[in-house]
UniProtKB/TrEMBL annotation:
<keyword id="KW-0282">Flagellum</keyword>
<dbReference type="Pfam" id="PF06429">
    <property type="entry name" value="Flg_bbr_C"/>
</dbReference>
<dbReference type="GO" id="GO:0071978">
    <property type="term" value="P:bacterial-type flagellum-dependent swarming motility"/>
</dbReference>
<comment type="subunit">
    <text>The basal body constitutes a major portion of the flagellar organelle and consists of four rings (L,P,S, and M) mounted on a central rod. The rod consists of about 26 subunits of FlgG in the distal portion, and FlgB, FlgC and FlgF are thought to build up the proximal portion of the rod with about 6 subunits each.</text>
</comment>
<dbReference type="InterPro" id="IPR010930">
    <property type="entry name" value="Flg_bb/hook_C_dom"/>
</dbReference>
<protein>
    <recommendedName>
        <fullName>Flagellar basal-body rod protein FlgG</fullName>
    </recommendedName>
</protein>
<keyword id="KW-0969">Cilium</keyword>
<dbReference type="InterPro" id="IPR001444">
    <property type="entry name" value="Flag_bb_rod_N"/>
</dbReference>
<dbReference type="GO" id="GO:0009426">
    <property type="term" value="C:bacterial-type flagellum basal body, distal rod"/>
</dbReference>
<dbReference type="InterPro" id="IPR053967">
    <property type="entry name" value="LlgE_F_G-like_D1"/>
</dbReference>
<dbReference type="Pfam" id="PF22692">
    <property type="entry name" value="LlgE_F_G_D1"/>
</dbReference>
<dbReference type="InterPro" id="IPR037925">
    <property type="entry name" value="FlgE/F/G-like"/>
</dbReference>
<comment type="similarity">
    <text>Belongs to the flagella basal body rod proteins family.</text>
</comment>
<dbReference type="InterPro" id="IPR012834">
    <property type="entry name" value="FlgG_G_neg"/>
</dbReference>
<keyword id="KW-0975">Bacterial flagellum</keyword>
<feature type="domain" description="Flagellar basal body rod protein N-terminal">
    <location>
        <begin position="4"/>
        <end position="34"/>
    </location>
</feature>
<keyword id="KW-0966">Cell projection</keyword>
Length: 261
């Protein structure tokens, strides 16, 4: 009976949906996290009677056919790249992006990754790095004896050095934008990688051409809405239960047929 297999695809799809929702909920407190959403498509149909087929020699046509689908599948889990709320941290090297841009991070293998997590530190050489020690691009060195570190909205990094009264510019942060942000590949550690779907990064100065401005002493929170996720979880659970009920019903029908024989 086809209903068994059709309902099983529904159960598998809702299981994947629950996995996506659970990952969103697990990362509610992850800095710069972007929630995902499961998207589905129906599978192929078997046509028992095609709409528009001729039913007589006079040219009359079937107004509506008979088609039975074969179920559902998960086709994508795109990230919703909406802006998360920003929260003050009072830490000089915490930076939030308010806008479209991503920070650029150089990985140990030489590739460039992209992130919305601006919780940066200074390593033993004074380089600005992320929490894993990967260097922020373009590289910025903050001397050990520097004071009054300042990062402007357009990414200019300044600090006061010993023996000087005026601030010294140490570097300029840049941001990357993508035509299709949802096409970025998740690499874990709050990092994303460029793909053919995302397009090449468009690198620019903060506060210019829609890249977004920087906020020193703030971090961007996850954009997960707990109420929405719980509502989606309940809906997915009910859909799973209904598909399981279809399997149970199909089994009872097959049992009845067997008993008749």
């Amino acid at each position: 009976m086809k209903a068994l297999y059709i309902a099983s695809t529904g159960m598998a799809a809702q299981e994947r949906n629950v996995e996506v929702i659970s990952n969103n909920i697990a990362n509610m407190r992850t800095t710069g996290f972007k929630r995902q959403r499961a998207e589905f498509q129906d599978l192929l149909y078997q046509a028992y009677r095609r709409a528009g087929s001729q039913t007589s020699d006079q040219g009359t046509l079937v107004p509506a056919g008979i088609e039975v689908g074969s179920g559902v599948r998960t086709v994508a889990t795109p990230r919703i790249m909406s802006q998360g709320s920003v929260a003050a941290t009072e830490k000089d090297m915490d930076i939030a992006v308010r806008g479209e841009g991503f920070f650029m991070i150089q990985l140990p293998d030489g590739r460039t990754a992209y992130t919305r997590d601006g919780s940066f530190e200074r390593d033993d050489t004074g380089q600005l790095v992320n929490v894993n020690g990967y260097q922020v691009q373009p590289g910025i060195t903050i001397p050990d004896n520097a004071t009054d570190l300042s990062i402007s909205a357009d990414g200019i990094v300044e600090a006061t050095l010993p023996g000087q009264t005026a601030a010294t510019q140490l570097g300029q942060l840049q941001l990357a934008r993508f035509v299709n942000k949802a096409g970025l590949e998740s690499a874990g550690d709050n990092l994303f990688l460029e793909t053919a779907a995302s397009g090449a990064p468009q690198i620019g100065t903060p506060n210019v051409d829609g890249t977004g401005n920087l906020m020193q002493g703030y971090l961007e929170a996850s954009n997960v809405n707990s109420v929405t996720e719980i509502a989606d979880l309940i809906a997915a659970q009910r859909a799973y239960e209904m598909n399981a009920r279809v399997i149970s019903g199909a089994d009872e029908m097959m049992q009845s047929t067997t008993q008749m024989r």
